[in-house]
Amino acid sequence: MVTPSTAEDGASAARLPALAAFSLFLSTVEYMIPKPLPFIRLGLANAPLLLALRLPAASFFLLVSVKILGQAFISGTLFSYVFLLSLSGTAASAAAMYLLRRAVPEKYMSLAGISITGALVSNIIQVALACFFFLGPGALYIAPPFIAMGILSGTALGLFCQHFTAKSRWYNGAPAEARNPLQADATENAAGKHKKRPLLDTDKLPPAPLFAAGLLMSAITLFLRLPAARFVLFLVFLLAAFVTGKAGNIFLTFIFFAVIVISNALVPYGRVILKIGVFSLTEGALMQGIGKAATVEGLVMLSRVTVSPRLRLPGRAGALLAEAFMLLNRLLERKKTIHSKTFISDIDRVLNEIAPLPPPRVQAKRGAARY
Questions:
Q1: N or C: which end of the chain has fewer CB within 10 A?
Q2: Closest CA to 120 of 153, 71, 161
Q3: What domain count does the chain have?
Q4: Which residues, listed in sequence order, are joined to residue 274 by a DSSP beta bridge?
Q5: How many other C-beta atoms lie within 10 A of the C-beta of residue 317?
Q6: Which of 35, 336, 325 is nearest to 192 (CA)?
Q7: What is the DSSP string of 169-211?
Q8: Integer Cα distance of 286 and 279 in angstroms
Q9: Same structural domain for residues 215 and 164?
Q10: Does the residue 370 lie in any domain?
Q11: For residue 20, what are the domain limits?
Q12: What angle do CA 243, 249, 255 make, to 5 degrees?
């Protein structure tokens, strides 16, 4: 006999791969939005975490780990400080949201309130780490707008999730609505049709040796102390990313490079090489800024070249990540059918298409066997 609680656990387990894929889809969307700093995020990929707050702790934090790893694979930041910021911010935010949901009844705090709390925790952690690792005390200047943006995005995400949980047929276990027969299925496979081919396609290389090479080069980069040597490696990694078609927006790369240099230059030390009014540009601060900027951006480029979504990691998180990427490919094939004006109904339909929830008895067996 399947009890209601057992059936609910099965439904939670059945939702887990689709929620992971949804998080990776939103990570892909956010990755394409230009940002002056790579660790600044709107937090779109946190929406599935809000939808998963009712899951058991083991399933919820498994989803969190897959979201962190998958986001690093998509953005190409696994070997960089940006990954450390994402890991720390997401982990602290997820823990705060999960504990808050358990401590405060739903009638006293909405998903919007929980989302704002998570965004604030994440932003404070990330600003503190950015201050320590590469921006220096200058990071405090970006803290107010960064935190304000977190409050706005957290509010929007919370309201979206409240609306989604109320309207989603997939989330509530109802059958999918019939798809409009006039929609052309041919458009679903149009993505990437006219994509420019890179000079060197790393997707054709085995992912494990590529990952090992990236790990080795990241260790060498961090071992180097001379800013000039790190800058040379940055140029090498940038060239490799350009050749493989994974350099992204070069203009934004150099903007972020300049932001790090300027932020470090705000705290002068060493020989003064330029003085403008009360501001003094010193050799020590300039070289430190160049070294930190070259390290951060160089590791990002290295990660983009050497970390592939095809890489299979061990354990439950690795299995779930592999399944999430498989569902993500199916979701991306249908992205032409997802529109901003009908986003909730469209994403709900697509989730029902790529990962329909099985009957309660099957859900219970799957939940006991897998997650």
A1: N
A2: 153
A3: 2
A4: 281
A5: 19
A6: 336
A7: TTTTTPPPPPP-TTS-GGGGG-TTTTPPPPSS-GGGS-HHHHH
A8: 13
A9: no
A10: no
A11: 4-191+310-356
A12: 120
| Cβ-contact 49, 63 below 8 angstroms | yes
The answer to whether residue 245 is domain-embedded is yes
Alpha-carbon distance of 104 to 145, in angstroms, equals 29
Whether the CB-CB separation of 152 and 195 falls below 8 Å is answered with no
Residue 325's contacts (CB-CB under 8 Å, 6 or more residues apart) are: 21, 24, 70, 309
Residues 254, 110 share a domain: no
Cα–Cα distance, 189 to 336 (Å, whole number): 9
Asked if residue 341 belongs to a domain, the reply is: yes
pLDDT 10s digit of each residue in the chain, 371 long? 334 344 444 455 668 889 999 998 888 777 666 555 555 667 788 899 999 998 899 999 999 999 999 888 877 778 877 788 889 999 999 999 999 999 998 888 999 999 999 999 998 998 888 888 777 776 777 788 888 888 898 999 999 999 998 888 888 876 655 555 444 444 444 444 445 678 788 777 888 898 899 989 998 998 888 889 999 999 999 999 999 988 877 887 888 888 888 888 877 777 888 887 777 788 888 888 899 889 988 988 998 888 887 788 888 888 888 888 888 888 888 888 888 788 888 888 888 888 876 554 444 444 444 44
* 182 and 326 both lie in a single domain: yes
User: Does residue 48 sit in the same domain as residue 175?
Assistant: yes
Same domain, 180 and 221: no
Q: Based on the fold, state whether residues 301 and 314 are members of the same structural domain.
A: no
Q: Do the domain assignments include residue 280?
A: yes
Pair of tokens at residue 234: 């940055």
Residue 148 tokens read as 């304000």
Rounded Cα distance, 50 and 97, in Å? 8
Q: Give the span between the Cα atoms of 327 and 290, in whole angstroms.
A: 41
Instruction: Locate 64 and state its tokens.
Output: 């969190």
Per-residue DSSP letter, 80: S
One-character DSSP codes across 36-65 = SSTT----GGGHHHHHTTTS-HHHHHHHHH
Q: Report the predicted TM-score, pTM, of the whole model to 2 decimal places.
A: 0.75
Residues 302 and 326 in one domain: no
